[in-house]
Write a structure and sequence with these properties.
about 400 residues, alpha/beta, Rossmann fold, Dehydroquinate synthase-like, alpha domain, 2 domains, two-stranded antiparallel ribbon, about 50% helix, globular
Amino acid sequence: MHSFITPQHIYHGEHSIQQLHTIIADLNVANVFVLTDPVLKELEVINPVLDILKANDVAYHISTNVVPEPSVLTGEEVVEEMRDIRPDLVVAVGGGSAMDLAKASAVLTEHDGTVKNYLNLSGTKQLQASGIPTVLIPSTAGTGAEITDIAVFSLEDTKDVITHKYLLANYAIVDPVLTYTLPPKVTAASGIDALTHAIEAYTSVKATPLTDALALDAMKRIVGNVRTAVWNKHATEARKEMSLGSLIAGMSFYNAGVAGVHALAYPLGGLFKIPHGESNAVLLPYVYHYIWPSCLDKMVNLADVFSISTEGKDKRQIALEVVQALFDLVQDVGLPTSISVYNITQSDIETLTANGLKQTRLLARSPMPFDEDAIRSVYQHAWEGWEKEES
């Protein structure tokens, strides 16, 4: 028996943001808390949201207390800000950080305690009730945060999460128009993030026929369009496909889960403040170079996604060509392919390994077990770089 969970309502496609009119009317909204990245406010990306609120005579408060890889302290600041405002709807516009802060704060506003009290690894409190209704509107095509019940927070040297069904959005609006002006690096990092969601869901031990179908569809859309979306700022059709691919990947990974790539990426973000999408991208080929024997048939199935010919090849050769294709894709979109680029030294690998081991929730979904030696080996190879790895 399998289950499948999504937010209550998902709207997607060009100009789907206009559904906010209907949401406001349905909920009889009078006061909205808008949470967004300060850059998005400055660039007026949130103006369509504000225009809708004004058209409906809705009072609103804008918070720009959003930073990449938000800390627990930032989360607690947003919770206190929201408690002061007491809105009857929370609207988040931005990347994963904005949406994670919004969904966690919308719930914690209605609870005692702080963000720290509810963390997965170290918290002692349990969520007891759903909070303020949320509308999550991604401005990138990659995080899938609008679909999940997970809010990620950076700690001193790693990351932890709050995860509960109460964090699921009441409404997710995925409007590709908001992604049309993204710069190449953000498009690349968010795009490979979405691909990582899809491939990790596909090879997860918790995968189901439904999550597999979604993951394969997402990967085809992403792999077929991410290079164009990154390097051609006028390619709106490619960006539409990336937006939809990210949404579909989110639906898949929320139900099947992500695994080794994310587990080892968390310490990169926590220790070195590397953006989440880049952390996933730089580790993606190295993790799959380690785990491919444990999911051989699925790796073979990915040959079609990457336009790899299978004629006359055995499964091992095909799987390794897929791993190479992952490396090539990360390189083609201009992202780093070695963690040494981030001023990580050989001596840092032990700390990374110790923190990677703590990510038991994620590692448990990997088809290949990760012990301490395996984690250390992946980090070591990612530090040395692909050419040395393959030689």
